Batch of 4 targets.
Target 1
Amino acid sequence: MTAYCATGPRGQYVRGGGGVKRCGPDCRPAIIRNYKHVHGTTCVSRNSMGQRLVLTSFGESHGQQIGATLDGCPAGLELAEDDIQPMLDWRRPGQSAITTQRAEEDRAEIISGTYRGRTTGAPITIVMKNSDQRSGDYENMQIKPRPGHADYTAMVKYGRFNDYRGGGRFSGRLTATHVMGGAIARKLLRESLGVETCSYVQQIGSVTMGGQAGGAAARSGPERCYDQSQIYGNETRCPDPEAAESMRKSILDVRKKGNSLGGVIRSVTTGIPVGLGEPVFGSLESDLSAAMFSIPSVKGVEFGSGFAGSGTRGSQNNDAYYVTEDGDGTKRVATHTNNSGGILGGISNGMPITMRVAFKPTSSIPQDQPTVNVGTMSNDTLRVVGRHDPCVVPRAPPVVDALVSLVVADHALVSRHIKPVLEK
């Protein structure tokens, strides 16, 4: 077997009888040798999420394939690749001038967990091939970490055994694995409880729906889900046509200048039953936030009035209750406003769950940036080459929808709002 010895851009391999053999301590850069205490923490894997509905993600950006295993999905759900493919298509790269030109087909294949068109209750595994990698673009990044990326932290934590190509496990490409499982969870919620979730781009750079970045208009919005054709009818995934065109122009302009933009996605989930969430450390907000932060580039999450609510008074921010009547005559408790974002005490209150998710600007930009050479432990510069999104936000709405669906479905199974076997 072989072991990697990090001594230069391409490293060296040594053979040792009886298993993998590490090179001597002097052949690794000082930056690795000085962090021996970190290596003892790498035995705990966190590639899975959920309690009853457990998603496990696997693969790397430039490996042969990526995939996901969803364990705990109830038996009896009608399921085929066509239920998963639309969401994968919405996040697929290479579809327009405002995304990366990496051309991947991204065709999902279910290889276990279904029989005769329905789920069996066994783990569902979905795989997808990588076919358009350009690993040579990343050679320099073995010794020159990209500013804003996980190259340096992964290098230290995993002793340079990590796959650095295309960012490896830290690439945005791996969000496709979230979508694989999330598309199933989304269908499960819709058919079992009538829950709908929709996410859309609300802000790119300084361009915002309503024209008030960060203000009340930016946090408010319809408490309903937009139709998918309104969201995915344009390249920026913004349901406001005028704002969408301004966003598109901003992205194209920043791309010409060799730079990038960030933005904000708003998520609305309707039809939520009262009572989802397991306080205090398994609250609905806690799990939704953790899921959002598993998306590369996410740097902020807020619910309801969020940070803006901290500048108001209780009389303004409290959501007053009232009794309303549904179309079938059933009476239920609702609130006049929804500053809580549909969650109180970590438990869903029956109102729509509203979230805003902030994405930083894409880190990979074709500009000379200061970095370090970890082989020589000296200051250096790096210009990132290759194909990268000038703004990742337009490809992220299906990823947000997928993770929201996974968390909500998991809590619905924990609370038994969804049974382990579905009725035909």
Note: The longest strand covers residues 196-204.
Target 2
Amino acid sequence: MLYLFRIIKNKYICILISTKIMERIGLFFGSDTGCTDDFTKDFIEEWGAEDIDVKEIGDATIEDFNQYKVMILGLSTWYDGDLQSDWESFFEDFKTIDFTGKIVSIYGLGDQIGYGEYFVDGIGILGEVILNNGGTVIGYWPTEGYRFSDSVAIVKENENLFYGLAIDNDNESQLTEQRLRKWVIQVKTELKMALLKEHQLAV
């Protein structure tokens, strides 16, 4: 539970607010070889499926995105910084979505050794569109401990952070479970605080 302190009619009172996430969450992901699909299943198990509606991006429409205030996006990065194929096909539509008032987190799979110059670029490609179109991105993730040379996923204002969770199952699969668990806790906390802030402004 969270406590919201407000002054109402000259009295300083404490309002008890449930921290349960009431918003339905839209999870949109794309997978070519099944690796992102497998990770998405692990993510849903860690998060808890009761809050999440899952849709493959190859079957998604702009209207699907418009249904949700809170979204989680998942993808892999291919070759020289290319989006996963279904995300690539949807990308022109994605760029037209109005993300104003929406809260989005992103996870991405990449290979920091084989494609170190383009590591998880897809996270940054999607993240920048969301921010440019009025949305809020949560779940920034530290770059410390990774061995890449460059990435579009690095936050422009802070080179020590990615726009989302970076996963490398090709080279660091032993760290995936730990990273996932920590990120889920982080995103849930940041999401609750963002929704609480909106509630405070509305009261």
Note: The mean pLDDT is 90.
Target 3
Amino acid sequence: MEDIDVIRKLALNGDADAQYSLGRLYYGGKNASGDQEDAKVWYELAAEQGDAYKQYYIGMHNRGPGVPKDDEEAAKWWRLAAEQGHADSQYGLGMMYMEGCGVEKDPDEAEKWLRLAAAHGNGDAEKELRERLIL
């Protein structure tokens, strides 16, 4: 049995790490089809289990190359991860509120998420707050 067969079996049995790994294999085309939609399915299954990093990653996938951009879907996943304290998701969500991408533009909500991200050590959030003179 090849490694991908083992990963697929674990993924089909609900293992979030295997689902994420299978999504990565599909996304990269290594030992899998290279199909972005298949990758998204596996990423979402993994993210639905509540792991903040996997939620962050599906948010990134929804804004990444090779897939239709879906800012609303990215914001949904980043919010779930951000609420768990995931700094990169807090930063991403803050910038979405700052720019009005996938969410209604809201400078106060943007500042809230950027401050949380900065407090969790996200340097980009710190820089953004300094540049906007709200630190």
Note: Helices lie at 3-12, 16-28, 36-47, 52-61, 71-82, 87-99, 107-119, 123-131.
Target 4
Amino acid sequence: MKRSGTVILRKMTQYCREVTDFIHGHDMASFVNDLKTFRAVTLSLIQIGELAYVAGEELKSGNPQIDWKGVSGLRHRLVHDYEDINHSLIWDIAKNQVPVLTKQLEQITVKE
């Protein structure tokens, strides 16, 4: 079933906000040592990546400010290399890149 651009953006934004909520109050050391939070963040990043992957070409081409391939590529790495995930990389993505992505997603208006 094909999802509308509006639904994809809404869900991606929701998962981004969840990542931000999950890491609230953590620093990198506490994040790396909190298995539940690490896994919750990782699953949310996988969901974000899957939604980026299934987003329609019109949505992607109309919003080149989002690194659609990078976001969906991260999902691929997380799913297929789960045992070898670099915890500090996930922390950096959650702390520094997800807030930027959240703002980008919030600024997109879908024409449907």
Note: Helices lie at 5-23, 28-32, 35-54, 57-61, 68-80, 87-106.
